[in-house]
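User: Structure tokens for both sequences below?

Assistant:
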Amino acid sequence: MKTTPVSDTMPVQSTENKSRDLKKSIKLFDNKQPFEITSFTSTLNNYTTDTDTAKCGRWILNKQDFEKIIKNAEPIDGTTWDLSFSVLTCTKTVNVVQGGQQFTVEINAASFLSINNGDTTVLLGDYNKSDRKRFIEQPGDK
């Protein structure tokens, strides 16, 4: 195998510059800004003690429901998530694009969602009373 020697004049990016450039290129999702839903599917969360999958077949949402849920949700921290929200088996995986970047939104039937950009995951809870009909459980129903 033949390799080309590296030139002494080739620019080298330091670790500090790489980290700064990476932070610039990774954007967090802002649910108050425009986004486009590109696909969605029903999924099951295997990391829960909830074993009732029958209710999942009755949890039906459409694109407009997803848009409202995502727009109405508000950021929560891990403690709030742990103390206020159940984790149900029923989930919807929604792929969205915002500002040219792809995000995966995992909506749980217990009124919370996680949004992942491939690097960072943020949690949001939907406390909006008009959205209660879109979920099986609401915050605090434990």
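Moving on to the next sequence.
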Amino acid sequence: MTSWQSLCILGFILAPFTTSASSSCDASNDFGDTCSISCPEGEAAQCTDGGESRQPECECEEDPSSSDEDIHTSRVLLYPYKESSLMDSLEYKTASSSDSSDLDIRLETETNIEEIINAKLNGLKNYYLRDQCYEKVVGRKCEYEPIPCIVSSVDLNYEFGLAFDCPPVSHKSCYDVKENVCKKISGKLELGQGIKVQGEPEVQVTKDRIKAIPQAAMVMTTKFTNCSTEKQSYTFKHDEETRTGILYSNTDTLKSKQGLSISANVGINVGFIKGGISVSRSESKEVQASKRSDESEYLTKTFSFAEPVKVSELTKSISEHSFLKQFAEAPYEGTVVVDGPIKSNKSGINKLSDVFPEEKDRTFRFKGILRVEYMAENHISVLTHKLSEDECRGKFLEREDIPSVITGNQL
């Protein structure tokens, strides 16, 4: 991987990559001097403001983005160097050479708790689960039942008054002799309904204190020229809209078919810059182990600053104010111990902990990254410059508002 490609991966985490640098730019100094340049194909424009002590500079340089390397795109979770986002799912460029091995790539994983538990149970010995009962024929028995015989003398020779005797008659009845027979059925234990979390999930972060990384400075510069002979005043304003807040992203999640809810509170102590001073701030977020991410506290807000500025006669005033956007990321790892009922059996085993008494055999892990984004404002700075008659010739009152964004190595 070339050094330029490494810088791209580190510096443009939140934006798509471009394959060419800017071909034109312009610059100025505090006295109103300007320069601009447009460069031919294959060269990049480089412009530097002059400030108060020198002239602005504009020149063309060879465009380092011009490369014949074969580029392909992959979509992964990237864990690069410290100035890059550990969490964002992004598209990045990798060369076809083996240089791409410099990147630490983490794939997302998902663990189904019930499937893992039943797989563990299936690896154990067979247990006495139930009885299977049925009727078995063990013999045959026959019985004789007499049949009564009745002869009516009326029907038989009534006129002679005779009666006849009946010979004995019997009926043979046979049937199977059965008895109830039961046999033991053995098999694998299975997890029943009602799995639950035992105790509280535990979460650990990599560091006790995370240092925030400057991401971008949103700057507003106002130049006010007062060529009148009286003092003037105006209201300096700076408004910026951006997303800030706290969110998490799980790389290793836990799923449950029974809808088991697993949540834990992740807390970090962040050091960030406010008004040029390092400030410590504690943040916490409830993490759901079954969700990929949660942005419920990651909101778009408008940050505003306003302050009156007075400008003396025959004076040029340059007022500057900035909002500094910073982010901090803390990888965390959580563990949760579960227990639950075992389906009905004859072995006297009622709970998962009866089979696996040690908690380590019922412990599941989830991992993720907590990200916090801040917007902190710096103090306003005001520079003044006395104007000569030549500088004020043809001028009276002039105001220019110049918004800009500073990123990367300029911060």
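User: Anything stand out in the second?

Assistant: The chain is about 5% helix and 55% strand.
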